[in-house]
Every structure is written in C-alpha cells, then in structure tokens.
Amino acid sequence: MHRLLLLRHAKSDRLKPGGSDHDRVLTDRGRTDAPKIGAYLARHALIPDRVVVSTAARTRETWTLIVTVIEDAPPAKFEERIYEASAEAILQVIKETEPGVGTLLVVGHNPGIHELAAMLIATGDVETRQRLLEDFPTGALAVIDFALEDWSKLHPLAGRLEHFITPQSLEAATD
C-alpha cells in the first residue's frame, strides 16, 4: 500500500510587474493556512516518509511553515521539474520514488497538481471526489491511497481518494 499526498502551495502574492513568478511568496493568509494544513497532517498521522517540493518560493515557504507543527518531518527534496509542471511530468517524478517510501508528499502548483489528482482517482466518496474535480484551491490537500508495491507502477485511475482538505474546510470544521 502506498499513499500520495498532493498539496497545492498556500495562498501567494500576485505577480508584481517586472517580478518573477518563481519568486512569489505567501500572503498573510497563506502564512496562516500552511500551519493549519501541517496540524491536520500531524493530527491524522499523515506524516510523509519523503517530501518533494517545487523550487518556487511559495512552495518552499509552504513546506517550511508546515514543518513548524510536524515532529520528525523528513527533509524535503526541492525538485525543479515540479515547478509549472504538467500532471504527466509530476507523475514521472513520483514514479521515480523508491518502493520503500510508503507515504509521499508532493508540494506543487495548479493546474498540474489538480489535474494529477483528477487523473489518479478512481474511487472514494462521490461528493468528496466531485469537490476535488470542481476546484483545487491554494492550500488544498488530496490524500490518495494505492494498492501498489512500487511507485513505478503508478498509473491513471489507480487510486482511492481518502481525504480532500482545504484551509476553508478546516475553518468550517472548527466554527
């Protein structure tokens, strides 16, 4: 059994004229939301064995804030191939993961993360799957389980959506 955690970076600043998209950082809301996602991961024992993060400033900052609330978090591998990547390109990075890694977290960007989640999910709660298909907002986390022995065998429609969490859904749950 393997578990994939797909996380879109937390809310980030808009691109400033003359600025670099790669260098965009989180907004105040993003800096508040990222630790909430980390707390959710910790509370539900969703601690990854391996973490792959896009090289963009907003994804690195998201991961840095998540680890402030997770004990024994693994170090992240910063992977340029995930920045602005298609679903297929992210899938290729995942397929290169060693078989012994049970839970893998990928921190990336839309549309690639959203399209990959939609591509991989075959089963799970119908309403939750529909919510994911409709929108994958900043800070959203999809938890997908696979009955695979090796990441290299990962293919479309192989997964079961176990959880789909957004910062807004976490806020609603605590109201």
Pick out its properties.
Rossmann fold; 175 residues; alpha/beta; seven-stranded mixed beta sheet
Write a brief caption for the model.
The chain is an alpha/beta fold and 175 residues long. The chain has a single domain (2-10, 24-157), classed as Phosphoglycerate mutase-like (Rossmann fold, 3-Layer(aba) Sandwich).
Strand percentage lies at 15-25%
The structure class reads alpha/beta
Low-confidence stretches: none
Biggest sheet, spatial arrangement of strands: 3-2-4-1-6-7-5
Question: What's the topology here?
Answer:
Layout: E1 2-8, H1 28-43, E2 50-54, H2 57-66, E3 76-79, H3 87-95, E4 103-108, H4 112-120, E5 121-124, H5 126-134, E6 141-146, E7 159-165, H6 167-174
Parallel strand pairs: 1-4, 2-3, 2-4, 5-7
Antiparallel strand pairs: 1-6, 6-7
Helix pairs in contact: 1-2, 3-4
